[in-house]
Amino acid sequence: MSYQQEYQSSIDDPAKFWEEKAKLINWYKFPKNILSTDEQGIERWYADGELNTCYLALDYHIENGRGEQLALIYDSPVTDQKRTYTYLELRDEVARCAGMLKHLGVEKGDRVIIYLPMVPEAAISMLACARLGAIHSVVFGGFASPELALRLDDFTPKVLLTASCGIEVNRIIEYKPLVDEAISLASHKPQNVVVLQREQAVASMHSGIDLDWATSMQQATPADCVPVLGTDLLYILYTSGTTGKPKGVVRENGGHAVAMKYSMKAIYDIEPGDVFWAASDVGWVVGHSYIVYAPLLHGCTTILYEGKPVMTPDAGAFWRVISEYKVKAIFSAPTAYRAIKKEDPEGELARQYDLSCLKTIFAAGERLDPPTYEWLRETYKLPVIDHWWQTETGWAMASNLLGIERMPAKPGSATMPVPGFNIDILDDEGQILGANEQGFIGIKLPLPPSCLTSIWGDTERFKESYLEQFPGYFSTGDGGYFDDDGYLYIMGRVDDVINVAGHRLSTGEMEEIVGKHPMVAECAVIGRSDELKGQMPMGFVVIKNMPKADNSEANTEIVKQLIQMVREEIGPVAAFKEALIVSRLPKTRSGKILRKTLRAMVDGDEYTIPSTIEDPAALDEIKALL
Ligand code: COA
Ligand code: AMP
């Protein structure tokens, strides 16, 4: 079937299309209700189907002869460790971990927070929750205690799973003190904290609530899979919105399993038995979908890599892993490839390895800039696929559909909409724009399976954030355009979300934190372009009672404090390292901060001064300071 036929059939009759795709997985009870509308008016997939995601990811493959095949490879240059799990071994570990959680009272529908570094136990505990029908929420290790506390209060987990430490290249990050602080900050206290002790740091334990992972696992009785409904939740993943409160994106079991399974062949052209590597982190959506769930649902071998693209030990790390485990496709963020390019521009380190196994290089998480695209293609002589997606969807909205029909690539474009995603480019009024006209990217409802159907505990916020701007559409928050050939170009966020090293961050949240400093009158944080990380946050800060911009030593001390505050509140991942003190912010007469103009100015791009500007001298001052 051609791409056009496949895509058109998904748009003409979504229910029929996704009924057919639902047959790709082994349901306990095949759904009769393929697409229905719930009492909130939200469209849901497979409401009356019954399945278990963990069964499909592990037990099903064992029943079908894959028991001895490797399911998961753990490669950790930061601890100098490697470990492999066959499907049988992984299933046994997961069943035991599920038994451990069950013993702690975790049942279907209960919540578990997973705050773990890139160790096999992270994937094991996600699958263990799925086995019990419990809902997990993984919190990325680079977030600080207040972020974890926010999630504790919003998600109210029964149990928190953590480790004594994570390792950032050669720096030990002790997790347990961060967990203890988060629990003391939060109103909701989990009943138990299970701690994986790693030899790099031993966590101190509090009697009554803290439990040792190894001992608890030893004492546990393996637990079996619990059937859940298609619309029962598999996980919640928090992502940055435009305010300080992150949004808990909900993921349902049925639609997720179908979309994951379908995507492995349709998008990535991967067969069961192949080795697939998403070089990301389980704390991000890419890690959920393509380190853990999709490769296992498809019967592949997946890799969990505890290291960086560079420095662990060098820019050859990715190529070493690829050749060692015969990886067929790699998927990482453009930042990671740019980091390699910087260290090894000629690709000499890669030439030390046999990369004949590798067929495709995938990139997502941020725009793949044409120079990096060209460099990857020329250096590694392989197809390079940019594809566009977000936490809300859990899989790509636009890609080159390699398993259906390979399209000629165009640098800077994420190619074409993935089947199920009915994409239009809209103007401010919601009118559909034509080819080459840039606007808001909307997806016509219904969204395909796997996409969010609510924000955890706040359906109103879900409707407000995504469905109200353009009635009948889901607003992606991204801007872009189609060219004459129907290729989609993603040009960046149209809201206050920025993308730093493939990590999604809220400038609004940073502004709220900076604004808490007693000396700060007001501030604006923008994302300025960065050669390595795509974007970096940059603050413009007005100090109380200071009529003239003064970046003298006393004030740089304030800037240092602001940087520290953001690091302590959000975490090191925020990478807020730069702020300028200004006497006033450039605003329109109605008080709107001219962020777009600020961004263009900082990036050295052309800009026009809006006629609505309140005080043009504010921009002159900034120009002089840059
Ligand atoms: N736990 C604790 N701290 C973490 C962390 C984690 N899991 N991940 C990152 N951090 C810290 C880093 O150590 C760094 O701290 P520092 O300010 O003290 O140096 C800070 O957060 C910022 O991290 P990052 O933006 O990742 O920068 P880096 O300089 O450490 O690494 C790259 C640069 C390019 C190697 C790295 O950004 C990278 O691998 N990017 C790919 C991103 C990716 O896979 N995204 C997933 C979406 S597909
Ligand atoms: P996250 O939810 O963390 O995955 O971040 C999603 C956001 O990252 C999207 O809304 C985009 O702004 C950006 N993004 C992801 N993939 C791409 C891509 N291939 N091209 C451009 N932007 C992307």
TrEMBL record:
Q: AMP-dependent synthetase/ligase domain spans which residues?
A: 67-444
**Gene3D superfamilies, per database record:** 3.30.300.30, N-terminal domain of ligase-like
Citing just one GO molecular function, the answer is: propionate-CoA ligase activity
Annotated Gene Ontology cellular components are: intracellular organelle lumen
- Keyword Ligase among UniProt keywords: yes
Classification via Pfam families: ACAS_N, AMP-binding, AMP-binding_C
**SUPFAM superfamilies given in the database record:** Acetyl-CoA synthetase-like
Residue ranges of every copy of the AMP-binding enzyme C-terminal domain listed in the record: 509-592
Residue ranges occupied by any Acetyl-coenzyme A synthetase N-terminal domain in the UniProt entry: 3-56
Under Enzyme Commission nomenclature, its number is 6.2.1.17
Record bears the keyword DNA repair: no
Which keywords are on file for this protein? Ligase
Give the family this protein belongs to, as stated in its UniProt record.
Belongs to the ATP-dependent AMP-binding enzyme family.
NCBIfam families this protein is in?
Answer: PRK00174.1
Q: What is this protein called?
A: Propionyl-CoA synthetase
Identify the gene encoding this protein: prpE
